[in-house]
Amino acid sequence: MPGQALIDHGRLLQAMGHEVELLVEAARAVPHDVPVRMSPGWTVGEVVRHVGSVHRVVLGWLAEGRRPREWQRDPAPGQSVESYLREGFVDLSEVLEWHDPGERAATWWPADPTYGFWCRRMAHETTIHRVDVEDAAGFPPSAIDDDIALDGVDEALAVWFGHRLAMLGLSGTRESSVGVRTGGHSWIARAGSAETVAWRCSDAEARGAGAVVSASPVETYLWLWGRQRVGAVRVEGDEDAAGQLWALLRLATR
After folding, report:
1. pLDDT, tens only, 232-243
2. Which of 15, 70, 109, 187 could, after both became Cys, cross-link 180 (CB 3.0–4.6 A)?
3. Is residue 171 a part of any domain in this protein?
4. Where does the record place the MDMPI C-terminal domain (predicted)?
C-alpha cells in the first residue's frame, strides 16, 4: 500500500465524505455561536469554517507545491458555513481521487510526500472535528469504525507526536516510554528533552515500555486526540509517562 496509512486511501476518502455530512447535520442542529467544549475558545460555526478552510489549504499545497499564502478562508457573502464546507470537500476530493495516492505531492511530513498523506490527514481532521461539533450539539457520538480509528492512532503517534512536536519546538520534561496497545496493533512513544519519537512495534516491545496504555481502538484514538480525559484509558506502570504523552499530543494537535 503506498504511503504510510494502515488502510486503503479510497476507504479514507469515503470516510471523509461521510464525516462531512455528519458534521453538517450536527452544525445545523444548533446556533453557530454555541461553544465547542472539546475545542476550547471555538464555536460550532468556527469549527465548521475551520474544516472548510483546511480543505482549501490542502488544495493550495497540491496546486502550488508548498503551503499557500492565500486561500479562501471564509464563506462567500451569503454562503453558509455548511455550504462552504461541502464545497471545499467536493473540490478537494475530486483532486485526491484523480491522483494515485502514491504520487508525489508537497506535504509537511517528510516521511510521506504523497497525495495519500492528504487523504489520510483530511479524513482524520474531519472526523475529530465532527466529534467536537456533535458533542457541542448534544448529539450521541456517531460510530467510528475500528479500521479508521486504528489508522488515526497511527497518524496521531507518527505524525503529530513523532514529527509535529519537533516542528513546534516542543519536547518532554522527563524521559519516558509508553507502549500503546489496541486492536491487535502496538506502538512505542518515547519522549524526553531531546526528542519525541514513535514507531510501530511488536506487542512484546510495547509491553516492555515504562507505561502501557490500552483501550478499544476508538477510545484510544479519541484519547490521543484529547477528546477523552487523561484517565479514560487503562494505564499499567508509569501513569505520569502516560499523562505526558496525552499532554504533549494536546499541544501538538491544538
Report:
1. 999 999 999 999
2. 187
3. yes
4. 147-242
